[in-house]
Amino acid sequence: MSTSAKKPRSGRPEDEDTKIRQRLRDILDGKLVTLLMTSATLWALFGDDIRLLTTDKDADTAFYVSYVIMLGLFILDIFLNSIAVDDYKYSFFFWLDIIAAISLIPDIPFFFNYITVLFGGLPYSADVTVNTSTGESQSGQNIAKKVLKSFRLIRLVRIVKLYKYVTKRDTEEQEMRLKQAQKLAKTAKQAAMNREMDPTRLGKILSDTTTRRVIIVVLLMVIFIPIMQVLETDNAPKYGLQQLFWMGWSSCTNTDQFLCDDPNNINWETSFGWYELVYRYTLCTIETDGKSAQYPLLWMYLPDYFQNGEIHEIRSIKKSDLSGIAWTQDENCSGKTVGSECNLRDVEMLLAVYTPDECKDKTVSGCENLQAYARFDIKTQSENDALMNIFTTLFVGLILTVAAVMFTADTQKILIGPITRMVLIIKTLADDPLKRIEKEEKTEDSDIRKEESTYMLEETVAKISALLQLSFGEDGADILSKNITSGEGELNLMRPGNKVSLVIQVIKVENFTLVSECLQEESHIFINKLSNVIHTCCKEWGGLVSKNIQGSFLLVWKLPEVSEKDTDEDDLSNPAMQRTDLANRALVSTIKTIAEIRRSAEIQAYKVHPRIISRFGPTFSPDLTIGIHIGWAIEGVIGSDFKIDPAYLSPHISVGYNLVEARKEYGCSVLMSEDFYGYLSVKAKNCCRRIDTVYVNYLPNTFGLYTFDITEKELPAPDTHYIGKLIKLAKLDAVNVENFQHKGVDYMFTLDSDITGLQQDIPQHFFDSFRHAYVDYISGQWEEAKEFLEKALTDIHEDGPSLSIKRYIEEKGKPAEDWPKSRELY
């Protein structure tokens, strides 16, 4: 298979095409484009109503041109987003934008009229221009107007577009994170799981779906509810025109005219009555308080009483007392076809039409085109409608926004939030069943959350996970996680282990077997109280609890790997310095464990326990032996499909247990190997004593054996003290620890009262005597060594290392010629 870059149809490499699309997205998301499209959206919503409310007919062309520009911007926006934005094309927002763009066409007459005529309809001016079908189609045209006016409200979907602009960046970031997770997936199955179970994606999909439903429901309501309402029409102009038609026709005498040959025909009106009737019709919309007419009459075409009932234009009407002219037609806005010189828009004029029933139902032939007309100026009504449309648009937009936000917020709180948390927990455990689930911080909504139906399920899953993690421990959970097949959550027992460097600490409760025999069913309580102190001190000083078995504890500190590239800086950024600090921490944890157990009220309470007293007397105390070593180990999972255990396999682990067993020989509570001692800081080393050189049969080299000497003192702690924490010496209480923390915990060996206090009563000349004895012992000068050992035992009668070397010298008598200057560690 070729490794060359795959090219799209355009011939550009994929990475170049991606960069171009990213640049285009950045432009579309920029402030300038966002501001432009926001302005275009608002103008599309309110522009036509502003035109009718605030301007005259002369300004229409400029408004129509602006609508064409808005339409072009919308089309360009759709085109560019289809190219640049993933998953936009054919999406919900894509169709919303297209519908919003189409809704602009009815506001552009020279587009809409052409389309209407193309499909066999009437132009937009049919309301005010006389034609033979006006009387029949007027009601249908009113319904069409209503439909178009409702359809314009679909433009409100652009508000959703504004919301999309605001949230686009967060959405794209979520999608980017998901794509990166899919790229990191090792299998197609894992990629599909990442895609389907990504909690942010699920929440976004559900939130978007809810928003879509709200938008659709609200828009359907605002569009179709007005259509389904009863059409209210002011029929006064039509009925008044009907009266004028028959009154004017009643004066006809020509039998060839429409219905003039009727023998029952009588003249119903007088000249003064005709003037009064027409005059009143011209004033039919005047208000009772005498204000000017809201809808002035512009033009009449009907039977003239003074012209033998013949139909023609009535250009003026005199007052009933013939004292002057009461009404004159508007020459610019009159006639069967309104010319361009009329200063009123088509929508600002109303044409009333009357056709005799006899002509409608063709009872009388030859009069199908017999109609009377009256045209009114309804600009005031048009302005009122435009103002009301603005308020309606604002109100519907507010309802749409509030409904979407409220539904989304409620859905987020009641459904999406809990589901997202559940999916996140399940996905986390699916990827890594032993990963710790962080608990939610307590807030004011915590009590409310407990009432949610998913809360109990969340808590149950979290508790099961926490229990599983607790059973394996932090270290065991980490080991198991590395053996779990990523994405599938299955344990791979055939996976090779990992080689790591460790500080190995083994703690053994020497008298545990006897204590458990005495306490029996209470022995678990006793060992758990000990475990609490041991684990807390270990955790406080950076260690990990690996294993608890029958009164023994295996604790580890994982050491960083050191390479040639590492710097020599004297701070914790240097891996070598980090190793020293971790070794110091392990020793501090050891000393703190002993001190905390001695002063623990819960543990010391067993001194007065009846069963303990009967077996140990009143001087009972847990007898701990601690062995510390450094070495490599292979971490991995041991077991089968029936039982597994995370474990370390290494001969160095055995050294830790051998050190603990050496308590029988040396009588020391703390024993350390030379490998561990070598990593300690100078201050820590000064607190330790070399007591022997030993070897084990499974390691090639001999090594030194060290101890940290401690007295039997029980050191007090302040009331506010927490287990394992620093207790400053009183004379050094003012020292700021933060000044030393960049170099690790070396300060503990001079500031902490437990570390210094446990060695406070040991005389210095004891150490001098033992040091001389040890040098003579190793060099083969055993007689001299015995003398110095006697001096050391004079200072401390029961010093275990001194007694051990003395017994060894007395047993061997003198060193053999091939004596390796060491002895076996049992």
UniProtKB/TrEMBL annotation:
It comes from the Eukaryota. Keywords: Membrane, Transmembrane, Transmembrane helix. The chain crosses the membrane at residues 28-46, 61-80, 92-115, 214-231, 386-407. The keyword Magnesium does not apply. SUPFAM superfamilies: Nucleotide cyclase (SSF55073), Voltage-gated potassium channels (SSF81324). This is Guanylate cyclase domain-containing protein. It comes from Blepharisma stoltei.
